[in-house]
Amino acid sequence: MDAISLVPPPAMTIQPVAATQHIAQALEHNLLPYQFIQASVAETDGRQVLLDMGQQKLWAQAQTDLQTGQKLNLQVLSTEPRLLFQLLPASLDRRLLGLLHLFDHRTELGAQLSALLAEVKDGATPEQLEALQRLTQQLSGQGRSVPTPAAQDLAGLVRMLGLDFEGRLYHGQLEDVRQGLKGILLALQQEDGQAEAVRENAGQLLQQVELLQVCRARLAQDGVLFLPLPFDFLDQGYALIEEHPQSEGKEGDGETRYSLTLNVTMSQLGAINVHMLLEGKNLFVRLRCRNPESVGRIRSTQDQLQQALAPVGLRALNVEAGGEDPVVLLMKRLRPDAPVLDQRI
């Protein structure tokens, strides 16, 4: 995958092609990070290309050869200090491409479920209401002395969200299918007597569940287990679990290594990337913060963190800067052929 960045003409951040007023402000307000747009190549001059985005045109520098008339799917990677786009490959799963726009910086799944629960009280079965209430409580942290979920809650999250809907349906596990969120949403959406607002809200939530499913399926192709963390105390979050067989010729007892990556965004700490590597009985943890102030805050509690992790074999705990937004990191993992992007270009 390749990157496209704006050509910086002298004394200008961007170069408007047509006579438009306040094009810089228009671009800044109309193009947002992570947004997906379509464009066509109007002209080329080497690797400088004129992008036609419908309402506006602009020159850009590409890192790959493009042809006049070529249709492009682009993602906005950044808007400051100048615009940077990423070119999405034509081979990217169309279903995934159609759902990626649903990613934002606040999942709000628990709040949306609460609203849906209030709307369907008179139009859902007792079993559906109970399942919705149980999932809403789990995502909001109700009934727990601490807001963070227990391990057994995470283990059941895939089933409760209905991320394994098709697999369970194939194996005839109909009752489990009906109790999962996807099964409930499908039933509400397809029920003729249901209120239009309920059916519409169920459809919107269903898209979010399907996005998580597609991400899960795509990453599984690379041997990565994707676990979403749509809890109310997180603005954004997910976990990636990987198995790393020991390389041939490496000294050791042949034990498989496992890694757990937590990419989360919290309102007070910002984006945090936690990478944990388990080698035998030894645990190594690296924690990176996007917000420099958060580095100091977490380092002030580093002793307590080390004491808490000591029983599970902690050997090293590093807290440092350089964290990235969870959404950006997930986009990179979903497109493993993407090179490391130098946004200074």
Concise structural overview:
The chain has 345 residues and is of the alpha+beta class. 36% of the residues lie in helices and 26% in strands.
Account of the protein in words:
The protein is built from twelve helices and twelve strands. Helices cover 36% and strands 26% of the residues. A hairpin with a 2-residue loop joins strand 2 (36-45) and strand 3 (48-52). It has three domains: 2-90, Beta Barrel (OB fold (Dihydrolipoamide Acetyltransferase, E2P)); 109-220, no CATH class; 234-334, no CATH class. The model is unreliable at 5-23 and 338-345 (pLDDT under 50). By secondary structure, it is an alpha+beta fold. The strands form two sheets. Strands 1-4-3-2-5-6 form a six-stranded antiparallel barrel. A six-stranded mixed β-sheet has the order 7-8-9-10-11-12, sandwiched between helices. It is globular and about 65 Å long.
Query: How many DSSP-defined strands?
Result: 12
User: What is the radius of gyration computed over CA atoms, rounded to a whole number of angstroms?
Assistant: 23 Å
Q: Which spans have pLDDT < 50 for at least 5 consecutive residues?
A: 5-23, 338-345
The number of helical segments is: 12
Strand fraction: 25-35%
Envelope shape: globular
User: What structural class do you assign from the helix and strand content?
Assistant: alpha+beta
The percent of residues in helical segments reads 25-40%
Instruction: Compute the separation of the termini in Å.
Output: 16 Å
